[in-house]
């Protein structure tokens, strides 16, 4: 069961990203402030949920969250500053969108650059530990998946509707046949 918070008195935002290991498309990040008593039986790390469950939870999170923000950085930025820095920067941009300034940040993973003077805690497997990080993982994943499905219309042979830019066999075969397109990360060693 997910922990509802890290600090009982502080306004916490959970942060997570989606698309870090993809061959193509942007990295998305989300920041979510949940009520301290928030609970939903399905909420978990987005990778443990079906697409239908993630889409259902996105509606719940957007409705129930005290505040949330979603941001992305495209493949050009990723190629320029690297995927780790782009992931962290996109988290900062998502935090910027919050209507309430958080007093503490819970970050999924083990690396982060401080956001202004807000204290933070990095949590490995945080999306399976804290509700706010799990909620952020759901938003980041669903927003990114939605974006990649739109790109599918322009480049159908990469099968982004199914692989969302990850390096599946079908995606790799399409790259071998058609080459890279403008949405591929040129810095990713394929």
Description:
The mean pLDDT is 96. The protein contains six helices and five strands. α2 (75-81) packs across α3 (83-96). A hairpin with an 8-residue loop joins β1 (12-18) and β2 (27-33). It has one domain: 2-Layer Sandwich (Nucleotidyltransferase, domain 5), CATH 3.30.420. The longest helix has 24 residues, at 131-154. With 190 residues, it is of the alpha/beta class. The protein has a five-stranded mixed β-sheet. It has helices at residues 51-64, 75-81, 83-96, 131-154, 160-163, 169-178; strands at 12-18, 27-33, 67-73, 104-108, 120-123. The termini are far apart.
| Average pLDDT reading | 96
Order of helices and strands: EEHEHHEEHHH
Total domain count: 1
Give the helix/strand class.
Answer: alpha/beta
CATH topology: Nucleotidyltransferase, domain 5
The CATH first-level class comes to Alpha Beta
Helix content: 25-40%
Question: How much strand?
Answer: 15-25%
Strand order, sheet with most strands: 3-2-1-4-5
Query: CATH homologous superfamily?
Result: Ribonuclease H-like superfamily/Ribonuclease H
Rg (CA only): 16 Å
Number of strands: 5
What gap, in angstroms, lies between the N and C termini? 37 Å
- Largest sheet features: 5 strands, mixed
């Amino acid at each position: 069961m997910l922990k509802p918070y890290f600090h009982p008195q502080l306004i916490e935002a959970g942060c997570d990203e989606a698309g870090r290991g993809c061959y193509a498309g942007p990295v998305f990040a989300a920041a979510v402030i949940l009520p301290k008593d928030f609970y939903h039986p399905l909420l978990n790390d987005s990778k443990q949920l079906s697409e239908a469950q993630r889409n259902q939870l996105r509606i719940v999170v957007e409705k129930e969250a005290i505040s949330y923000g979603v941001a992305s950085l495209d493949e050009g930025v990723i190629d320029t500053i690297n995927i780790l820095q782009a992931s962290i920067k996109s988290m900062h941009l998502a935090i910027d969108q919050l209507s309430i300034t958080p007093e503490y940040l819970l970050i999924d993973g083990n690396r982060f650059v401080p956001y202004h003077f807000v204290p933070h805690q990095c949590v490995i497997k945080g999306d399976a530990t804290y509700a706010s990080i799990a909620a952020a993982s759901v938003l980041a994943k669903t927003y990114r998946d939605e974006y990649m499905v739109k790109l599918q219309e322009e480049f159908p042979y990469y099968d982004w509707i199914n692989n969302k830019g990850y390096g599946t066999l079908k995606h790799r075969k399409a790259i071998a046949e058609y080459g890279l397109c403008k949405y591929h990360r040129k810095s990713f060693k394929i």
